[in-house]
Amino acid sequence: MKVFEAIHQFDVRAFMWCMRRKRVALWSRLSRTISRTADGYFYPVIALAMLWLNEARGETIFWAIIIGFAIERAAYFTLKNLLKRNRPADALPEFESYIIPSDKFSLPSGHTSAAFLMAGLLCHFYAPLIWLLYPWACLVGASRVFLGVHFPTDILAGAVMGSSIALLILSWV
């Protein structure tokens, strides 16, 4: 248990460091905008666009995205409800997040997991996008901390989960 307590203490210190830098209004708006890019609405559109625009590999990419997200969402909901880690607003007295989260628990970050899954899948098929998609996925994770809805290790867990599922899917295609 000492290990988990040490991780939690690190998490709280890192989280509070981010929160002290969060007071800049521009970063607030930017964090919300970046976070919204990973809300999930664009992922089915991207899957359909791959099917429609890419004749040679479109169907493979489409199914990789669909199956990847089916696995990712199932793992996300299972882990969140199994681990039941409180969000910062519930874990830290007198702290209030900047947005209302979509669910109760924080580990893993679903936005981050989905962003890393999408980055991993698309970069496999379109390698030059690596310079755009992985920085975007990292910014999505950072935005969730700066919005006050996740601890840093929630983001790390989401990134590992999304990347792992991408690798699993890519081993099948």
Question: Helix and strand layout, with pairings?
Answer:
Layout lengths: L1 H20 L3 H12 L5 H12 L4 H26 L4 H4 L18 H16 L4 H17 L5 H21 L1
Helix pairs in contact: 2-7, 3-4, 4-6, 4-8, 6-7, 6-8, 7-8
Shape: globular
Average pLDDT figure: 91
Number of helices: 8
Reading off the top of the CATH hierarchy, the class is best stated as Mainly Alpha
State the helicity in percent bands.
over 70%
**Poorly predicted ranges:** none
CATH superfamily membership, which one? Phosphatidic acid phosphatase type 2/haloperoxidase
Architecture (CATH level 2) name: Up-down Bundle
| Rg over CA atoms | 17 Å
Q: Could you explain the architecture of this structure?
A:
By secondary structure, the protein is mostly helical. The chain has a single domain (2-172), classed as Vanadium-containing Chloroperoxidase, domain 1, CATH 1.20.144.10. It has helices spanning 2-21, 25-36, 42-53, 58-83, 88-91, 110-125, 130-146, 152-172. Helix 4 (58-83) packs antiparallel against helix 6 and helix 4 (58-83) packs antiparallel against helix 8 (152-172). The model has no long low-confidence stretch (mean pLDDT 91).
